[in-house]
Fold:
Amino acid sequence: MSSERFDCHYCKDSLLGKKYIMKEDTQYCTKCYENLFANCCEGCSSPIGCNNKDLSYKDRHWHELCFKCAKCSRSLVEKAFAAKDELLMCTECYANDYSSKCSTCKKTIMPGSRKMEYKGNSWHETCFLCHRCQQPIGTKSFIPKDTGYFCVVCFEKQFAYQCCACKKAITTGGVTYQDKPWHRECFLCISCRKQLSGQRFTSRENYPYCLDCFSNLYAKKCVGCTKPITSLAGAKYISFEERQWHSECFTCMQCSVSLVGRGFLTQRDNILCTDCGREK
Structure:
């Protein structure tokens, strides 16, 4: 009784006692398998046989001995590498040819390293330091000034004005009064504490006042309506014997005709037009 045959699926040679390779439940002799299925090496252009390791990268294949840096020829097996224009290079060769240099230490920034870039310059992350405290800025906010870079805290300490009211840094806007800086929200009327930024105000003894407070505290009072008379708001007034009237309040006590620009008579504390005065 003859034994069952066990042949190569492609060339039909017997595989009994020989090395063979299974692919999708089908057996092949090593020669047929390599001719039919072996990948071509990118380095030497020869098939990658069954007895060799097949190293692959992005659908490209190499013999283990052919997988090396295109520039210095060092093996890339189990080492970091980078690709440039279809060529594989060790990280050192790639960095020397293509990587940027750190603006602080002048050394190459290796591929894969954390780095900082700003306006065409590059730094190792640990080399991008605040010009004042010399601590790495990392991913925190920073402010460029002259030729240096500052973390926000150091910039405020070194360059920002300090509000003379709260003593904290003024980073945006602000108000200058008597050559001193103030936050807008800190520049207040000394009397009512209303914010004066963007409002008309005046001062007395170096203290700022809103117009209402200044008028109530210091302006002369109208004899007619008893309200303050202030020229700050552009009001016109009449003055007579240390008494003052708003222009619109300077009227005859009896007939209420305006006395502005007209003659008048006095009767005790009252003022009268000449017609009403004669009747008396």
Observations:
- The first strand starts at residue 20 and ends at 23.
